[in-house]
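If your schedule permits, I should be very grateful for your opinion on a structural question. I have a record of one protein: its chain in single-letter code and its fold written as discrete structure tokens. Kindly check, if you would, that the fold set down in the tokens agrees with what the sequence suggests. I remain grateful for any guidance, and I place the record below:

***
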Amino acid sequence: ADIATSYQAIGSAINDLGANGVASEANIAEFTKRIGSLTDVLKPTVQETLALGAAFEESGIEAETSSRAYNIFMKQASTESAKFAKVMGISKEAVEDMINTNPLDFMLDFSKGLNGMNATEVAKTLDFLGVNADGANKVIGAMGNNFDRFHELIDLSNKSFDDGTSLITEYNIKNENLAATLEKIGKKVNGWFSSEGFNNWLF
């Protein structure tokens, strides 16, 4: 996709996620920027990342805390798959396959699996797995407890990203030409993500 289309897609997804709940555009962008530093294999798609930023903010978890916990969880899962397999009661190969296929789904399913545990059991499990980021238990708890809401926001983000229309509608395209509108959208999205390396991941 060309950059103008990508701006529309990203801007529209952020716009719709913000309108759908209590998440702020700035916080979604901040979370997304922080996730951008992960290796490609462990990164969710841009659409999923935007949705995660919104879902964590709705759960009352700051971008810095949630992104750090996500990063550490993914790094541990990819290097300690045998331990994760033991906790989840599945094979090491199954864990690796899930991480390689869809890392975000893997994390959501893992989190949902811890739902019946009390706080002490969750803390012990995360300690055993080396997922000891500050706030990791909050992040895993939020994903497990709000499993359906996370998926709802991911679906919304994917749809908004594919349609790419909500920001153009907001800028009321009837009253101005497309080029000027796209330039405005570009500036807005660029303002959220002002880092060249990060923009390379997005586009």
